[in-house]
Specification:
By secondary structure, this protein is of the alpha/beta class. The protein is 41% helix and 20% strand. The protein is built from eight helices and eleven strands. The chain has helices at 12-24, 35-44, 61-70, 88-97, 109-123, 157-168, 176-184, 193-207; strands at 4-8, 28-32, 49-52, 79-83, 101-104, 131-134, 137-140, 145-148, 151-153, 216-219, 223-226. The strands form three sheets. The protein has a five-stranded parallel sheet, with helices on both faces. Strand 7 and strand 8 form a beta hairpin. Helix 2 (35-44) packs parallel to helix 3 (61-70) and helix 6 (157-168) packs across helix 7 (176-184). It is globular and about 55 Å long. 31% of the residues are buried.
Length: 232
């Protein structure tokens, strides 16, 4: 089944250009001109990915993303922010709010399509079956669920892939560049600072469980590791 992409954008020329290129890639397209309309579409229509502008009428893209992440049925929905706001602080805020990727205008359509394809591949159903277990963390690959001390942990698609990679290599220290290549892919340009943002989100989710400690170790000038020693 062809994936469906929701374009949330109020500039008609950009919508037309995106629709043309997405449909050429074999994708179905749904459009929303403002944030309120986008949330209504998401409540009524199956969507596989959202392209979300920040500066929207009625409701900002940041608030739309925040509401997407609050709802269980859309918590894991891939979201790419496509916006003219290119300052580092804006990028970090967008990712912290729950966006999986952040693209600034003007953008190269080929690069955006590559990011969309990569995110759709990674957010699809997990092929391997079974579980990954480390200390008090359990990941069910078939059900795409994570728990710690028996309590369910809700993760976005990127945080799920990041944790999975750590669980597959416990105790090993990975640099930001290594994590980018393994989790985002070697042919996708993402700033290394993006790794820090998603590590923070992963830590927050894991540490929300009462009675647990931070199990992700930060190694200065080296990177990050999943390490039970930090939880001792």
């Amino acid at each position: 089944m062809d994936p469906t992409v929701l374009i949330v954008e109020d500039e008609a020329a950009i919508v037309t250009m995106l629709r043309y290129n997405l449909e050429r890639e074999g994708m179905q397209v749904v459009e929303a001109g403002d944030g309120d309309e986008a949330l209504k579409i998401l409540a009524e229509t199956h969507v596989d990915l959202v392209l979300l502008d920040w500066m929207l009428p009625v409701m900002s893209g940041i608030e739309v993303c925040r509401q997407i992440r609050r709802k269980p049925e859309s918590r894991d929905l891939p979201v790419i922010m496509v916006t003219a706001r290119g300052e580092e602080g804006d990028r970090i805020r967008g990712l912290d709010t729950g966006a999986d990727d952040y693209v600034t205008k003007p953008f190269a359509i080929g690069e955006l399509l590559a990011r969309i394809r990569a995110l759709l591949r990674r957010s699809g159903p997990a092929q391997p079956q079974g579980q990954l277990v480390y200390c008090d963390i359990e990941m069910d690959l078939a059900a795409h669920r994570v728990s710690r001390n028996g309590k369910a942990i809700h993760l976005g698609p990127t945080e799920f892939r990041l944790l999975r990679y750590f669980l597959e290599h416990p105790g090993r220290v990975f640099s930001r560049e290594q994590l980018l290549n393994a989790v985002w892919g070697p042919n996708i340009y993402v700033e290394t600072r993006t790794v820090d943002v998603h590590i923070r989100r992963l830590r927050k989710a894991l540490n929300d469980v009462k009675g647990t400690r931070d199990i992700i170790r930060t190694v200065r000038a080296a990177g990050y590791a999943l390490d039970s020693e930090t939880a001792a």
